[in-house]
Amino acid sequence: MSRDLAPPFSASLAADVLRKSCAVTNMETMGSRLMRLGENALYHLPAASAVVRIARTMDYWDDAVNEVRVARWLADQRFPAAEVVDVEQPIQVSGHPVTFWRYIDGRDGNRDDIGTLGTVLRRLHQLPKPGTFTLPTEDILGRVEGRIAIADVPSLDKAFLLAQLRELRLGLDSLHFPLSPAPTHGDAHSENIMIREGMPLLIDFERFAWGQPEWDLAMTATEYETAGWWTAAEYGSFVSAYGFDVRSWSEGFPFLRRVHELKMTTWLMQNVGESAEIADEYAVRMRTIRDGIRSTWRPF
């Protein structure tokens, strides 16, 4: 089924894929709950002590393959991170890549853990290239065009966002990064660490790649500078833990900030029809990136 003919990715569609996936893998679905609906649908299966990740389309199959490989590599590196369930995966169910993860009995990372995120990223960026598989080359704008295509937003919005995307793609080629290439997470925000018995565990590897550490660092800096999600003291703890403030890169950070603003807005716009709150927040973000009107963004 083509993307244009496929039904919209929704909680009800994901629930159907979940039932079929668990039938294939013989996992118990009793008590299952939707944890998150964003780029993926995430379900907790308490009886299996597992988390099921359902991607939006088969366009994301290679990402699912990569994240399973990365999880196993990080385990070999003794890096504290999410682990896959010991089943053959990913699997394809009704046109969706599906992966299975061991449930982490802990809490989500929060604003108290922003310094911890800096420590985790510093350690991650010091890891060597994997020797048993090839990480994809970082493509920090890779999903934006697809998000714009499927979103139920005005055509004028889509035209503006596509123009921004073209401009940013051209500008990436001219950047000279100060840090050395490294393994990068690709979605390095505080909610992608879990805290179990005081230890941080890194999660969500579908955008994991070989690229520039500045990309990971610029996410938190954009959350501070644009979204207003961190105080100066909190952002300072992140910088101190990592040992480098990407905002000091005057040539490149303003550009990467625009990239993150575009990505954060197009990520949200995929679900603009799910609730009035998401639609309102999408409008706030568009006023920021189109009109320069600064106001605090709401996290989702």
From TrEMBL:
UniProt cross-references to Pfam families, sorted A to Z: APH
Signal peptide range in chain numbering: none
Protein name per Swiss-Prot or TrEMBL: Aminoglycoside phosphotransferase domain-containing protein
Domain of life: Bacteria
Residue ranges constituting the Aminoglycoside phosphotransferase domain according to the UniProt record: 48-248
Source species: Paractinoplanes rishiriensis
